[in-house]
Amino acid sequence: MSGPSHRPLQTVVRSLFQRQAPPPQRWRFSARAALCTGLPIVAGWLAHDMAAGLMASIGGYTALYGSGRPYRSRAWLLASIAFAQALAVGVGIAAGGAVWSTILSIALTATLATWLCNALQTGPPGAYIIVLACASGTAMRASHLSPLHSAALIFAGGAFAWIVQMAGGLLDPHGPERRALDTARRAVAAFIDARDGADADGARRRAALALQQAWTALVAQQPARSRGDATVGRLRTLNRELHTLFADAVAAEPESSSDALRARLDAIDRRLQHLDDVPVTPRDAVPTGRPDAMDALRDSLRPGSPLRRVVARVGLCAIAVGALATGAHLERAYWAVAAAVLMLHMGYDWTRTLQRALQRSLGTWIGLLLAAAILKLHPDGLVLALVAMALQFAIEMLVVRNYAVACIFITASALTIASSGHPDAHGSYLVARGVDTAIGCLCALVVYALIPPKPTAARLPTLVANVLDAAASVLEHIEAGDVISRAARQARARLQRSTFALAQAYEEGINGSMARRRVAEQAWPVVAAAERLAYRVLAIAWSRESAGANRPPLAAAAIAQSREAFATLAEDVRARRDIGADTQPAVLRIEFDALKQALATMPSVEGR
Asked: Rounded CA gap, 31 and 389, in Å?
């Protein structure tokens, strides 16, 4: 059993030229984003107040959020983002008069936005747009626009984006839920095809994550106090069948035929085409694998939470870059701050952070040439709106394919809008953008190096022990013959979350420094064995649930023995004691022994 090989430097360089496949129907999302950016400018032109139109266009960035969410969840998210942008711009404008108040307001906004957006999983572009709104506000004051008036314009632009983003619900109210289920179906199909291949572990993880995201769309992002939606309930039924199929595929021997599994997958696909014949599964009948909002916010602040380090990096970097840019008398210091926050706010590992910094810097300098060509034409009024829309459409089409190329258009768009009404924008103005971006990216890399993720070796015992404890809790419910109560479902969700956390720690290590990468490579057998054990336990729970009243009698004593073995091993791993040779479960012995062997052979690499 070996993990994938990683060469971070080659990965970073190769990323400049790689192209990723865009999501289906990406042009629709790109067109909506362009519309929400350009029409507020058109409104300002018609009202003979371009400053107001440009201010409102910032609120149009609300359209970049929530495209994969169910519409009712999307409505709340977009309204919150529009309000947050309006508040951030108001704060930025109010603080724009003094140097240190400007720096502190941007840093505070960046810190809070990073915490909230990551803990609540708003998705890309995350905190960046909110921070950009605040930072831009410090430099976008118009003489006739007060902070309150500016905030109202931003909110108006956000309200327009809300309408555009919600319009699809009139034609296909459950389109996002259907797409989430279809994504999970394709991921499970890929795992079935790869069960006995070299990428079996990766395919299994991707399928589990896709299923968890489908449950999020079908359960966690549905209204908590709704009477229930029959269509969503039927989609839950199919996702339960899909999850049961995935569990059976995990439990099946690798050399066994996959024909029966593929036949069941085809049957699920056919039932999706005739949804009215599918029974309804209620909201509380499935585990989501995701805590509610308040639990997520609390968990993100607990000791050991990776998000705490991300938030600390963003806050420290925003203050440091702001102070540095101000000390260097950079006219538009907010450009540097925005670039730094963009590198750090998503909590990427070192390789992806370095990759983004290089892509952003290179794309920005090339984008200056495009910006210079556009500004030479002095677009204004309706032409400016059309140029802004064309650039925004190009950005959203390219950002998922190649970020470096997208940054060319991002730079041109930002400078075109920021320079509107300033015909004296010249070469030094453009160069300043490139310098500020480079400073921001460089500072972000320095701060990341000063506050790196917690070492993989230090986290691994706790994360593996968490998986074993969660697995023991699930087995306890199975032992009692209870797999469908709220407590049993929460136990299964906790096991799933702990497994994802272990995989995330491995990814951070493998994309870190050379020392961290060596540790992660040595830890791969432990990670893979723990994942397999966890998914086999979940497979037992799902198979017991799917059998319903017809499930065969359970050997409770054997399950109890296995539960005790899991709990004992968890204590040994957490305390970093030698693994007892007499610790043996009655069921899942193969997976258990594989994990024990991996733990016993992994070198001690504390503190790396």
From this structure: 8
Mark whether 465 and 555 lie in a shared domain: yes
Structural domains in the chain (count)? 3
pLDDT for the residue 284 = 63
Q: Determine the Cα–Cα distance for residues 448 and 512; give it in Å rounded to an integer.
A: 11
Structural tokens at position 117: 């957006």
- Taking residues 150-170, report their average pLDDT: 93
- Residue 296 covered by a domain: no
Phi, psi at residue 16, to the nearest 5°? -65, -25
Q: Is residue 527, in this structure, part of any structural domain at all?
A: yes
Residue 131 has pLDDT above 80, yes or no: yes
- Residue at a domain's end among 431, 450, 469: 450
AA identity, residue 360: R
Residue type, 566: F
Q: Do 104 and 210 belong together in one domain?
A: no
Q: What is the pLDDT of residue 579?
A: 67
Burial class (CB in 10 A: 0-12, 13-18, 19+), 509: buried
Residue by residue, DSSP assigns 328-392 as: TT-TTHHHHHHHHHHHHTT---HHHHHHHHHHHHHHHHHHHHHHHHHHHT---HHHHHHHHHHHH
pTM attached to this predicted model: 0.81
Distance CA 31, CA 371 (A): 21
Q: How many CA atoms lie within 13 A of 204 on its CB side?
A: 29
Q: Does one domain contain both 32 and 162?
A: yes
Secondary structure (3-state) at 395: helix
Reply yes or no on whether the pLDDT at 2 is more than 50.
no
The pLDDT of residue 251 = 76
**Which token pair is 55?**
């201010």
Alpha helices in 69-216 (DSSP H): 71-94, 99-119, 128-137, 147-166, 175-193, 200-215
